[in-house]
Amino acid sequence: MTLVLLQLLAMRLVVGSGFGINLMQLPQVDKSQVACTLALLRKYFDYSDALSGSVICVSITPLNRDVQERLLLGLNQHVDLPWTLLTTKPQDRGKTQSESLKGMHEKPQCYFLIVGDLEDEDLEETFGHWKRMSNWNPFAQFVVYLAAVEETDDEMTDLMVELLLTFMNNKLYNVNVIGQSEENSFYYAKTSFPYHPDNNCGNRVINVDLLDACSYEEDNEEDEEEESAEEVHDSEFPMERSADLGSSQESNNSNQTIGSIEVEEYIRARFEDKFPHDLSGCPIRAAYRGSWEPYIFTISSETTEATESYQDPSATNELTNETATQYDDSYADVDDYNNADHVDSNNGQVEEPVGQAKLTGLEFQLLETIAQRMHVTIEFTLQSSNVFHLFQQLIDGKIDVIVGGIDEDPSISQMVSSSTSYHQDELTWCVARAKRKHSFFNFLAGFNKYAWFLLLIFIISSSLAVLAAQKVSGFRLNSLPNFFSISIRMLGILLTQAINVDAQTMPLVLRSLFALAFYMAFFFSNTYQSFLITTLTTPTTLAQISHLEEIHGNRMTILVSSEHVRHLDKEGETFKYIREKFQICYNIVDCLNNAADNEHIAVAVSRQHAFYNARIQRDKLYCFDRRESLYVYPVAMLLPKKFQLLQQINAIIQNVIESGHMQKWARDLDMVRLIHEKIARAQEDDFKSLNLSQFHGAFAFAGALLLLASGVFGLECLVHWSVVQRRTRLIPLRWLHRRFR
Questions:
Q1: 3-state secondary structure of 303
Q2: How many Cβ atoms are within 10 Å of 441's Cβ, its own excluded?
Q3: In the 8-state DSSP scheme, what is residue 388?
Q4: What is the DSSP letter of 235?
Q5: What is the pTM of this model?
Q6: 691-719 per-residue burial string, b: 16 or more CB within 10 A, e: under 16
Q7: What tens digit of pLDDT does each residue of 262-282 get?
Q8: Contact criterion met (CB below 8 Å) for 89 and 60
Q9: Strands, E, within 439-547: which ranges?
Q10: Would you list the DSSP string of 675-729?
Q11: What's the pLDDT band for 431 if we cut at 50, 70, 90?
């Protein structure tokens, strides 16, 4: 019969807006138990997060059947209660319950649980069941009814403390506990404020506050009701650290009388009261993956001095105060966050404790703003170059936030939460910048095809003119008998400006032609010699690798960080080659420096990190155009799943973005980068000495001419020795001897 009743309760929808209770329909046994529990539950139903729905989830356990039956009957009978009743059984993990929740998309606004003996109850099973539900809402109001009636108020409070601590260990903080002791007839509702200064910031339950006291009397016993009301004012409540009822009645006392039920409120405990804007200096444990410019990185004393040289301290203070005022005027005078116990990145180690170092960066300044507005302290407890190690630490609850240019990995999205994105970055390819090419023929790059064509036309036309002038004038030069010899002499004039003829005996036409050739040679030879000095010592540039297909075509070595391997799943021959040949990069700084010196290495890296990282050879690296980027992603903080402060952190981030401070911090970092680049250029030598590789082309050209001259001289000596001394009869040698004379 009980199971049939529970199924009927689970399927019935009860909606209402009133607060009264028809006590005539309640069972005759212990009406106060049902009446006060429903009254307090109705009150706390509206205490949860405003974004939740109108569903109350009641978990049925195998224990305390009688109490559960009475309370469920009361929950189901009153049509004026404003919720939809959803009953679940944590012990049933079968298919039936999962199918019953398929149509329930609305998240519960309140979870109600009846607990007897904590030693017999399996609360971990109940918590796991709630978290496995598709409409799980950790920001809802949790109400627990203690079915066990303790002998004294102190014993009841101790049991409540143990129960609250169990919920707190499971990251559930918005919990109210209802209980009763044998010392009096009142039902007390107590809770613990997780960010109270005495509660160790949500880690321990030290201070327990009394929320409400509920009394119930029959309508025909007015005298006893008055006596009971007096007992409420005179009774002593347990625990030295509990709320003082006398002072609470004067300051925050509001009585609600509903028929024969009187609920006296002492402290309000809504969701915003449990998680206020001022968190009493509680710490938030943060971790970062070492120095990751421009998001968070260490700075040296020289960097600090350079920054102070262009930043106005008064403007910075004014900016901080203005930022705090925009969010909440009450925190404008909060002391500056000065927790600077951080550490520089030591690449190569997976995990490092945090020492003392000065941090800066976009995300560090954002965390400082969050710390000032929420009155918390950011404790950097861990840095690790292995991002997956940080993910595991976050999932295990050892840290509260991860920063460092992180994008959320879909593989862990079900186990962590990400904040509102505040920056955009992209994964791109960086390769070595195209190096200078030192070659003997570099000077040829200074002449295009039209220059060579005009030079050839001038030599041919001037040679034809000299040949025609000899025939017309009848004056013939023995050294220029034909067109070929005249063309060679014209080329020699252009190259050496030498005219080895007797100009006095030549006709005017020939002298004019040779004068024109000499005039042209004056310009050409000086230009040519200038190229020997400048062009040969100023090398050309090799072709720059700037497209993804060129990585495949040049069979380059691929270096990728472990967290970016998932982006190599694209289609095509290029990505197939990348997936086959890539290597894991464990230290991005070393990988980028190796790529700067080796033109056969390509590294996948964050564009912002490669642009702002001063530890790499940025002038020797070339990062692909944005159109060639692998992946564009929003940068956000990673926090535990359903983190209780996530909404407040997102509100601050949104305010920082809208106020333009994120862009201002980015401009400041860019200014620092430009200043350091100017300082580096100013410290360089004004004059640079040439090395051998820069002018080996000039030596090669001079050596080639020397070899040619030596060869001609050796040939002349051989011809002279063969013809004059040996009297050879070889026709080629005798012909050469005549030509050399």
A1: helix
A2: 12
A3: H
A4: P
A5: 0.65
A6: eeebbbbbeeeeeeeeeeeeeeeeeeeeb
A7: 888 888 888 777 887 788 788
A8: yes
A9: 540-541
A10: HHHHHHHHHS-SS-PPPHHHHHHHHHHHHHHHHHHHHHHHHHHHHHIIIIIS---
A11: very high
The answer to whether 216 touches 260, Cβ cutoff 8 Å, is yes
Q: What is the C-alpha R_g of the chain?
A: 44
Cα separation, 109 vs 389, whole angstroms:
35
Q: What angle do CA 599, 602, 604 make, to 5 degrees?
A: 155
Arithmetic mean of pLDDT, 538-544: 70
Residue 258: per-residue pLDDT: 45
**Cβ proximity of 139 and 113 under 8 Å:** no
Return the exposure string of 385-409: e unless at least 16 CB atoms fall within 10 Å of the residue's CB, then b. Answer: bbbeebbebbeeeebbbbbbbbbbb
Neighbour-count burial of 455, counting CB atoms closer than 10 A to its CB (0-12 exposed, 13-18 middle, 19+ buried): middle
Q: Tokens 């700084």, residue? A: 589
CB 49 within 8 A of CB 43: no
Cα separation, 92 vs 501, whole angstroms: 117
> What's the longest Cα–Cα distance across the chain?
158
500 pLDDT band, cuts 50/70/90, is low
Q: What distance lies between CA 571 and its chain's CA centroid?
A: 26
Of the two residues 226 and 450, the one the predictor is more confident about is: 450
Tokens 């060869």 found at: 711
Specify the range with the lowest mean pLDDT, choosing from 57-66, 136-145, 472-481: 472-481
Encoding tokens for residue 418?
A: 């990400």
Find the DSSP H helices in 235-312: 245-251, 271-274, 301-310
Average pLDDT on 112-130 reads: 85
Measure CA 426 to chain center.
Answer: 10
Mean pLDDT on 131-137? 85
Spatial contact of 179 and 147, defined as CB atoms under 8 Å apart: no
CA angle 166, 169, 174 (to 5 degrees): 75
Rounded (5°) CA angle 98-103-105? 100
What is the pLDDT, as a whole number, of residue 326?
Answer: 37
Q: Which residue has the higher pLDDT, 235 or 467?
A: 467
Residue type, 367: L
What is the C-alpha to C-alpha distance for residues 399 and 392, in angstroms, rounded to an integer?
Answer: 10
Strand segments, DSSP code E, in 277-394 are 283-288, 297-298, 359-360, 377-383
CA of residue 397 relative to chain centroid, distance:
20
DSSP code, position 145? E
Check whether 639 has a pLDDT greater than 90. yes
By DSSP bridging, strand 55-59 and strand 254-258 are unpaired
CA distance 295 to 362: 5
Tokens read off for 385 = 């170059």
Cβ of 528: how many Cβ atoms within 10 Å? 16
Instruction: Say whether 257 sits in a helix, a strand or coil.
Output: strand
430/294 Cα distance (integer angstroms): 17
**Average pLDDT, whole number, for the chain?**
75
272/550: higher pLDDT: 550
Answer whether 639's CB lies under 8 Å from 397's CB. no
In DSSP notation, 362-378 reads HHHHHHHHHHHHHT-EE
What are the distances in angstroms from CA 88 to CA 112, 120, 121, 138, 174? 11, 19, 16, 16, 20
108-115 and 423-432 strand pairing: unpaired
What distances in angstroms separate CA 175 from CA 133, 196, 707, one per listed residue?
19, 14, 97
User: Taking Cα atoms as reference points, which of 665, 606, 672, 671 lies closest to residue 361?
Assistant: 665
The amino acid that residue 433 corresponds to is R
Contacts of 169 (CB under 8 A, 6+ apart): none
Residue 660 vs residue 241, higher pLDDT? 660
Q: Which tokens in the block code for residue 277? A: 């804007």
Tokens, residue 468: 């025609």
Scanning the structure block, which residue is given the tokens 């951080």?
A: 342
Element (H, E) at 430: strand 423-432
| 657 in Cβ contact with 431 (< 8 Å) | no
Classify strands 283-288 and 401-403 as parallel, antiparallel or unpaired. Answer: parallel
